[in-house]
């Protein structure tokens, strides 16, 4: 693999050049976003077990973080507010640090087997209200934080990305053995003397014991 300097390539420098290349959107696409969740958005959210949370820090650096819940675990507090509990992770909290500095976020909700997605853009707050946190308890464990997003835009995204990728088609999935385990990745990254199997076992125990 050779090194590439993108600055040596021809690039788009302004909006007019971009529009020349891709054209203008159809009116139905331009007018599809709302500042709230309608009945269809609420139904999709209720069934979504997975969301990607995109954030940007004060210095412009970006982060995208996956969040997973059982269906119904992401909640509309009202038609303009979405709540996402913050479950145990690796404690880097990159997304949350970004939100403290810059509350603007983008959310992409997915439902297994559904090729369309629900996109939500808005401003986020990291909420520590006890009653709200307790309402998200699972197995007696209460999240320390809840991410609440005030909706500025909400709209559905078409199926083309999922159709092209065939993401929900098991026949297209690679053999898991073709890719390294996370234990192997970490061993190589840290040049660890520990066996891969021991690292993978420790990671799996963490996944099991600290899920909530």
From TrEMBL:
Domain Pyridoxamine 5'-phosphate oxidase N-terminal: 38-158
InterPro entries recorded: Pyridox_Oxase_FMN-dep (IPR024029), Pyridox_Oxase_N (IPR011576), Split_barrel_FMN-bd (IPR012349)
Protein name per its UniProtKB record: Pyridoxamine 5'-phosphate oxidase-like FMN-binding protein
